[in-house]
Amino acid sequence: MDAIQLIGEKLILEKNFLAKRIDDFIREEGRSAGPVTDEIIEARAELFQYFGEVLSDKENVSAARFQGWGKKTGELAVKYDIPLDQALESTRYYRVVIWEFFKGQVDEFNLSGSAVIDLAAVVDPLLDETVQAFSVAYVAYNNRILSLARDAIEELSVPVVRLTKNLAILPLVGTIDTYRSKLIMDTALEKCMEYQVERLFIDLSGVPVIDTMVAHNLFQVINSLKLLGVEVTLSGMRPELAQTVVSLGISFDGLSIAGSLHNELEEYGFTQHPERRTFA
After folding, report:
1. What value, to the nearest 5°, has the Cα angle with vertex 54 and ends 52 and 57?
2. Residues lower than pLDDT 50 in the chain
3. At 140, phi and psi to the nearest 5?
4. Does pTM top 0.70 for this prediction?
């Protein structure tokens, strides 16, 4: 067994020590090591194991294996909420630690300059591929989580709430842009069909401003609901919204307008009993 193979064997034996050595370098530079769990230490040791196996020729360790490690740990960094800049900064310590280890072995085995170059030709490209895979996986996994969170928030931002078997309310709060107006159309149509709604109250009192494009889209929603047989009552319409609608030439014919939602609901029998504090 030649010196390079022996170095690989020793690297495998010391993988856990090297995994913890990373934090020593981070602290020596006055940086925060962040969360260091058994899962993170195990992942670090696994990478050193791969390098040891490559050098010792224990088995054919392909570049895909290193890329798989980068993907797995990139997702792990997102899981522990480690910022991307900090996560990428930490990857350079793998190079620092492994070359510190190699330096000791070079002195011990009195390796020639060409042997050290051969060592670098194996290790450095694999490290580069690992970091690349880590970065790609981090961004992709983080974007996937953000997308799921956005979908959940958007679902909550268009709450069609059933009041009775055939009555429902859609209270809108916050700014409505073109994207959200499309979401309102899709959700309102879907929920009204699902709940078999005959009348939908759309309350706009929590909407600060609506531009002409959104107003146009909103009335498209109302017309689409009418085609499904759903009667729509608009409440909480601000004067500026009414002016926008008029300027667009949109007709109020066949559309129920209410000054306030609570007054309109009272006409449908939704009143609070003063003693029992329940709704009639």
Report:
1. 100
2. 278-280
3. -65, -45
4. no
